[in-house]
Amino acid sequence: MTLIDKINQDFKDAMKSKNSVKKLLCQMLKSKFAERKKYINTKTFGVFDDREVIIIIQKELKECNEEIESAIKAKRDDLLTGLNYKKQLLIEYLPEQMSEKELLQEIIHCTAIITSELSNKYRKEIVEYVLLLHPGKTTSKRINLILNKILKK
């Protein structure tokens, strides 16, 4: 089931259960999807998929967080309940966030891929720098083995 299908199903369920907040949120998301589809088809000839849906939901979540901050500053507790519920609904549609460790590994991996040509040119400098930062904790052989693993991915 794609994310769009899930949102459409949630829209139907919200109408049946008379959950007006969820229904309005789904309607708004569907409207944003239609706008984006139209833009993609006319301007970029791209594909509208779950990645595009996630981008739209992330933008809406960011706006919702800004609205929450504004409501807190304005001391509008009456708005906070609805905004927090909307935020929770939006979060349900997003994939689970990466942990800090996973993110660090991914950044290192991507950096290695992007700079693999540079890394091969500057392999000696990388090894020397790591040895300088961590004297006695590793060897140049181990560093080179790990560099080989990273650059092969």
Shape: elongated
Order of helices and strands: HHHHHHHH
Q: Indicate the radius of gyration in whole angstroms.
A: 23 Å
Content-based structural category: mainly alpha
What fraction strand?
under 5%
Query: How many DSSP helices?
Result: 8
Low-confidence runs (pLDDT<50, min 5 residues)? none
Q: Report how far apart the termini are.
A: 30 Å
Please, could you describe this protein's structure?
With 153 residues, the chain is mostly helical. 82% of the residues lie in helices and 0% in strands. The protein contains eight helices and no strands. Helix 2 crosses helix 3 and helix 3 runs antiparallel to helix 4. The longest helix has 25 residues. The model has no long low-confidence stretch (mean pLDDT 83).
Tell me the layout of helices and strands:
Elements: H1 3-17, H2 20-44, H3 50-73, H4 77-93, H5 100-114, H6 116-121, H7 123-133, H8 140-152
Helix pairs in contact: 1-2, 2-3, 3-4, 7-8
